[in-house]
Structures are given as structure tokens and as C-alpha cells.
Amino acid sequence: MIETNNFIFLLILSQLLFFSGFLIFNYQIVNRYNVTNEKFYKLFFSFVLLLILLSSLIGYSYFFFQVNHLYIYGILIFFTLYGLFYLLKFLLKNFKKFKIKYFYSEYSILIYLLFFLLCISPPTDIDSIDYHLGAPVAWYEYKSFYPREDWLHYRLAGLGEHINIIGVYLKTFNFGQLIQFFSLTLVGMFGYKHIENSANKKYFILSVLSCPLLLFLISTQKYHLTAASIIFCSIIFILHKSKLSNLDIICVVSSLIFAVGTKFSYIIPCGLIWFYLAY
Prior knowledge:
Elements: H1 8-32, H2 39-64, H3 69-94, H4 106-119, H5 126-132, H6 134-142, H7 159-170, H8 175-194, H9 198-209, H10 214-217, H11 224-240, H12 246-262, H13 267-278
Helix pairs in contact: 1-2, 1-3, 2-7, 2-12, 4-8, 4-9, 6-7, 8-9, 8-11, 11-12, 12-13
């Protein structure tokens, strides 16, 4: 059963720190193995690695074992403290020279801020309340993947629902929305980097942020926006790399596999990219 919590703002802060800590941890892995030299690409692959590791961790734990919740809470606390440490270290080191340079339009900053407030709000769409959160809540209560023959939409749960269970543990129930917001941020950053004309950079970001559908996608636990951003960033990465290494191809293919794992209908655009990489 989904319940509200009087410490919701503190829990949302913990959720942000956990996400930041886990993202920084994966960024360090990507940086160590020299996946790519560009910071934007490193951030993108770090985000995808976060999604893959988190969904795999939850998926294998709940499939093979009767999960002890203390085990998951231990991981959450570790990466929350990890994120707090590195964010404080970053702010103390770079506070005086910190500038917002990627979304230079004040209107873009305002819209991103409004979308961020929307992403930390409670989910209200029927699909999120039904199975995008309902399935993780059922797994949490039974401490394992529990078959439900009487629940039709329960069978549609995929990799996204594995990640949504983090919101169940933290009692925020909107962790998936935070993933959607970061996905939108990645799209803006990739577009800003690869568009040369400064005026076009501004118009690209504003055109992306002005899409009315984002009001729904940012506030839902569905991973449509995340999958779409993975496909978009993968295409940009492929087109702007003069030569793809075997590691590059593995990273792109793995990213697209996760996109398909969130919703099978993405097999069509992802399949076209796979065929392109194969030939």
C-alpha cells in the first residue's frame, strides 16, 4: 500500500543524493576505463550504466532470493553518503568559479526548474499508480517477484519497474520521474553541444522544452522519455564519432537494449540502429 510521509522533503533530498552518488560512481567507472574522451558522452554512458546496474541489481536480487530489505537500504545509505561527500567536495572546490553555461537562456533555466519541481511531485497518472508503482510495491511487500495471475497489467512490468522500486524503499514514489528529468537534461546538453550556431542552440532547447507532452512524461513513472533520450543520444554519438571502436559499439548496443527492456515497442528504432552498426 502506498502511504504518504511527513518527512517527504527530507526523503526527496536523500533520493537526489542517492541518484547523484550512484551517477558519480558510474562516471568514475566510465572515466577509468576510457570509454570516451568527451565529458558529455561520459555522462551519457554513466547514466545508462546506472540504469543497467540498478535494474540488474534489483532484478537478480528479487528473482533469485527472498530479499532482506536491510541489504537494499544499506546500498541506498552508502550511495547517499557517497553523493553527499562528492557534491560537498565539488561545491567547496568550484563554488567561486561555478557558472551556468549550458542552458544560457534564463527562460530555459526557469522551464527546467519548473520541470524539476514537477518531477519531484507525487505521480497521479493511472498507469503509474496501477502497475508502474503497483508491481514494485507488490515485490517489496513479498520480498521477491510474486506472480499475479489476476492482474493483467502486472504482466507488463519491465526494467523500468525494477528501478521504480527505489522510490518505494525511500517512500517518495517518484524516483522514476527523477530519471525522466535527467533524461530531458541530457537531450538539452547534447543538442547544445552539437549545434554550432549560438542562436540555434537557444531555439533548440526552447523548442524541446516547449513540447506539451513533457508535462505528462516528466510526471509519470513510465520510461518513455528515458528510452527516447537514449535513442537520441546514441544517434548523435554515432554520427559525430569519426570511427567507432568495439567498446563504443558495446556501449551503444547495451544502451539500446535497456531502452527496449523498458518498452518492447522501441525494438523498431533500436533495431534500425543495430542493423546500421552491424553493417
